[in-house]
Design a protein that fits this description.
With about 350 residues, the protein is mainly β. It has 4 helices and 21 strands.
Length: about 350
Amino acid sequence: MPDKVELRIGADVKNKIPGIKIKHFLSYQIDSDLYTPADAFRLELANPETEIKHGSLCEVFINKKKELTGIIDKIHRKVSKRGVSLAVEGRDYMGLLVDFYCEPPWPTVSNMKLQALALRLLANVPFINRKDIIYQQNIAGKLKSTKKTTNTVLPDPAQRLSQIEPGQTIFEVLKIYALSRGLLFYCQPDGKLVFGRPMAKGEPEYSLQLHKEDYGNNVIESDVIDDISRRYSKVTVMGQQQGCQSTVLAAGINVPPGIKVDTEFPFYKPFVCIDNNDSLSPKEHARLLMEKQRREGLKMRYIVGRHSQDGENWAINKFCHVSDEVQGIDGDYLIYGRTFELNKKDGPTTRLKLGLPGVVV
């Protein structure tokens, strides 16, 4: 069956307002990515005479399943000798938080729980239902704490926050605060905000096959990059105490360093950094840094036809088994990025980005 794509604009189920439903497109691109601040979409309408207003709430459905809830940011109408064209662009609700700056008074957040901070910052943001925010377990606690736990880990020495500063957006603040607890901050297709972790294990719900002999293949194109230029065999994080200068690291007054070794790296290549925030666990910080290096070093891109497999739309934060004899890959990987596309040349396709499971950064 052909994929059915529908854009609904201005619908209000509660007040029984149907809004506008658009089902015919010349082209589209609908993105979703766990590690990108906001999911975006661009749709070129087959009927350019349609009246659409920027700032309208909208929903994108693929095969009758909601895949994005957001706001129309841009309307592009073009007139030429070939006729009139109309395209709309927008982002999910996270795009609003990317643009929304924190206003004064700027609170000190060092003793504030994540949930309390989120509710405070989102109090004046339109469209966001604060009661629907999803908080994964084990998020209680404070950013500044002398107790070392796996929930007080920052991915980078610069990612520290105790005071909101002028010029910071709500997304920036909540992302940093979430990362300090080992959590991602992202938006679900239904518009709900989530503080949670990527899937670390599970049974694959999808499969990609590219055999040397063309039987059962469903992959149109595969692109795999294995890059070690920014990876290291050993990561050391020096847990410097507050008030100490880096010149006294050898004096033995610092907390024990965190060390993580990548046994798969082909040769010795050390990475060392100093973390002067005493709320961090250097051991967990080192682990997180190495995970980030490994994730960024492995890029797996696959293109498949259509937008679903066995009746289920391709989705992020799901496991996929890859059997690629040409690339020499056989294993389960996390789908962290997905783009539904339509163009005149290729028809409907889905671009998938796969990588290591359970990685927060």
